[in-house]
Amino acid sequence: MPSKIDQERVMLREAELGGLGSRLGTYVKFSGPGWLQSAITLGGGSLASSLFLGVLAGYTLLWLQPVAIILGVVMLCAISHVALSTGQSPFKAINEEINPVLGWGWAIATILANVVWCLPQFSLGTAAVTQNLFPEYKDNTNVEVLVCAILLGTAIAVIFAYERGAKGVKIFDNVLKVMVGLIVLSFLGVVVK
To answer: Where can this protein be found (predicted)?
Structure first.
């Protein structure tokens, strides 16, 4: 029985023969964790920064959000290139091939960026529950803590599911792909309009 990597290689070869649409569909299918990163990046952090820039500069800095998205994609491509061409994790490759200071700086910056981008998700989730679903609990600190604990528990469960490769991860990935696609289309719609 061929390994999963061999099966994926066959699928990629078939996609190459099938044309552009087939290639794009196959690439989207194999791009699971990248969509999770995109969802984090396009979440509360983007919303908060876009609103803040809107308050400060009106529509004049609206172009900045799509540029930030493109830079994020370029950065993810660079990291994946390092990982794929060396066969090592990006952190290990940067530490060994370039400089440990750069590797650790990148790791610390990544953690800080994820904290900055992820923490607003708890705020948004709490606000969605206490203001929209259950407005009677709007100013109840215990309910806010409970909602944050549920969100954190869900995030931890998803992380462990990724480690095990559970089938629910595929459903989660597909939902994320649709949501990220809709967010990107919304950004493009606002920019074009």
So the answer is: Membrane
